[in-house]
Write a structure and sequence with these properties.
Mean pLDDT of chain A: 96
Helix content of chain A: 40-55%
Number of domains of chain A: 1
Radius of gyration of chain A: 18 Å
Distance between the termini of chain A: 22 Å
Number of helices of chain A: 9
Strand content of chain A: 15-25%
Oligomer: homotrimer
CATH topology of chain A: 2-enoyl-CoA Hydratase, Chain A, domain 1
CATH architecture of chain A: Alpha-Beta Complex
Low-confidence stretches of chain A: none
CATH class of chain A: Alpha Beta
Largest sheet of chain A: 6 strands, mixed
Chain lengths: 262, 262, 262
């Protein structure tokens, strides 16, 4: 990246809308570095009065985000694992609890942590390209989505769809994702940014204060659950991911990814 | 109204069914007076052994109920505001927890508190007239639906639809409302009362005791939430609605309504 | 039955899949004897390392299970009623909390306790025969589904459908059941066992440990609710079912069943 930030922020002060683009090729993997940048950018927008809405999207063709960078979870010290997990939590806390109206413009595949980012926004638009997939597919890697990933999914698609989706680690096509309510709307790929702006205008037509209180009424309990168990959740993650069996699973998966590339 | 009651009650003792019609032109606004009458009528039916079912509908063409009478919230003393809010709570407690089988025959528009009344019944039939709208549109007025409005909506349409619906203050056409499950059935306007009677017969075919226990099993927790925080909820309302910013919002809205009429 | 077990277990060790067939004519009524056999069989499979998945189905044509054997609830001592109810609880605890991937192949009608068994599996396939019905129809008999029946339904079809379904004691055709999500898939009757095997293969493609943790994350709270109130729930059942009014309801129902047969 030669020093260029992997998080491109463009704030239209007149509209009050920031567009945040992830640009960490090849797959916008959520490394500790990217998470740190992204949280910093989100916090700045959160603190900026001129900003009322946020569109989250990708600058990497074909991928929204592949989720957590798997290299951050393999062969790392407990301290580093803990630092990484705290950053993942922080991203979710910022996005899921944002005072801003948030629209995900999912312009590419969005598995695992990528799906979580989309789930944390107020509205999800996905490019209707059958090559793209979205879902919490953790079980396929032999790992388990943490409880707050689960809660965010459950609040979006309901208990039954969440049960099946999480156990099977299902990755959905845009049409399937739309059908179960995992995304709110499908658009042709070339129109996704324009449509995100239109949708945002609809959200910003509502007085901020009333919208924010309504959002909080529906999300506070889910957010508080993590906030109250944040340290325990970090310890759970570190302990789980450090297990020999899990490290071996991750190694296998990484080798498979390398072979795919080659 | 020249002393006529705004709440018309017709009890068919043979069928065990009462039809309650709101008749407070122009929009069945829930004033303190109407709320008091309505709660009294509902309590009487609740206490009357001959009554097993209740159809709630409107005698004012084109409107089910426009919800809380906004003049009750503007420029009032704290004491009066508290009295008003207690009556709103009481209406919901009576309807949502009724031992009766309750069917809403939504024969007109039904925003905000009107929607809440419909949500509190066991079954909702709506006249399929695209001019009619239903929904919790509080945020559009700069105010926020209280938590028990939110809970009643959430129990009906699920978490995701509730999030979007409440934040955007969405008003749905009958077709849209049916699609998200906000109403159970659409019928041509002229058939709504006959259909309500048919549906009621289906509900009354079930032994009361078993039906009531099943209803309570699904609603008690939601009801208890308000019952246990009733005073705090009144204080929250009084404090919130008394704010300068909110009073100004309400004033603007009232002026807009006046201009519409003129 | 001449001593033959009413629970047929066939374990394919290579596939890691057990097929459990209920064979208690005429309707696979859940008597204390059948419950005891079934729980024993389930516990054995649970403890057997070679077993990873379970298909639950019926060997009696046209019926999956008619649910609790009503003769177990009529004219019995409190002690016997308590023993019976504990066995019903045990069946649910085993099925709903199973470490195995569980698929219900619902090849016949499945009211009340039969429906509960299906609801407790991870996936439900139903034979698309319009003569078959499925649902928690307890209120039609004047009784009430216990809270954990309600919770299992609620986790499957959501709050609104559960409210209507439980209050009215609705029995759904396969098409209706599919529409509200009470079953996941419909297949021609002759293909149901083959399809169950296919679906099971999909579930077993996921590493057991990750699948089990995901399942537990979504079911533990519901399970714990019963586990923590198990004795009180037994007392509630015994007290409720012993009431004169309930015993009379059951008697009426049994006489109606006898007349139907004759």
């Amino acid at each position: 990246m030669s020093g260029a930030s992997p998080v491109l922020v463009e704030l239209d002060e007149r509209a009050g809308v920031a567009v945040v683009r992830l640009q960490q090729p090849p797959v916008n993997g959520l490394s500790l570095a990217l998470l740190t940048e992204l949280c910093l950018a989100l916090q700045k927008l959160e603190d900026r009065r001129a900003c009322r809405g946020l569109v989250l999207t990708s600058a990497v063709p074909g991928i929204f985000s592949a989720g957590l960078d798997i290299t951050e979870m393999f062969g790392r010290s407990e301290e580093r694992l803990g630092e990484f997990w705290r950053a993942v939590q922080q991203l979710w806390i910022l996005l899921y609890g944002s005072r801003l109206a948030t629209v995900a413009a999912v312009n590419g595949s969005s598995p695992a942590g990528g799906c979580l980012m989309a789930l944390s926004c107020d509205y999800r638009i996905m490019a209707d390209n059958p090559k793209y997939k979205i879902g919490l597919n953790e079980t396929r890697l032999g790992i388990v989505a943490p409880f707050w990933f689960k809660d965010a999914l459950l609040n979006t698609v309901g208990h039954r769809a969440a049960e099946r989706s999480l156990q099977l680690g299902l990755l959905y096509s845009p049409q399937e994702a739309f059908k179960i309510g995992l995304v709110d709307e499908l658009v042709p790929e070339e129109k996704i940014q324009a449509r995100a702006a239109e949708v945002m205008a609809q959200w910003l037509a509502i007085p901020d204060h009333a919208r924010q209180l309504s959002k909080s009424a529906l999300r506070k309990q889910t957010l508080d659950h993590l906030l109250m168990h944040r340290e325990a959740d970090i310890q759970d993650f570190v302990r789980f991911i450090s297990r020999d069996a899990i490290q071996k699973s991750l190694q296998k998966y990484m080798e498979m990814l390398k072979q795919k590339k080659a």
